[in-house]
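Structure first, sequence second, as always.
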């Protein structure tokens, strides 16, 4: 199994980036690779329609460390853990997402990496646009 770290620097402070990414209502805005619908809650479980079908999402609890790790339970029942962090960077905040090659070809792995790169690009653009709209930048 290989891992690949995808990183984006966002011109906003860590708290702003973390709060935006941790707000599940924003998931469909930036995480198109995962969320193709609004997040729905059933009991303690969160669900979203994705390109893989209906998946369950469980994020770690909000924390002061910038950790946004989350488990995605696929329709097959397989659970994929996705490490994700937001931390300080001289130009704002940096987001790192670890993509793991689990049971996929090199081509599928490359597609997953490209999808996460696009998701983090959307996250950066959405955070900056949201900050501008609030007059924060």
């Amino acid at each position: 199994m290989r891992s690949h770290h995808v990183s984006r620097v966002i011109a906003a402070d860590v708290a702003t980036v973390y709060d935006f990414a941790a707000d599940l209502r924003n998931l469909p805005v930036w995480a198109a690779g995962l969320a193709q619908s609004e997040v729905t809650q059933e009991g303690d479980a969160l669900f979203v329609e994705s390109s893989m079908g209906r998946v369950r999402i469980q994020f770690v609890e909000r924390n002061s460390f910038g950790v946004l790790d989350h488990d995605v339970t696929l329709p097959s029942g397989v659970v994929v853990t996705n490490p994700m962090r937001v931390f300080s960077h001289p130009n704002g905040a940096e987001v790192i997402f670890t993509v793991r090659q689990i049971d996929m070809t090199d081509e599928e792995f490359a597609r997953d990496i490209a999808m996460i790169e696009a998701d983090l690009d959307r996250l950066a653009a959405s955070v900056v646009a949201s900050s501008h709209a609030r007059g924060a930048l």
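Margin note: Helices lie at 14-22, 27-30, 106-134.
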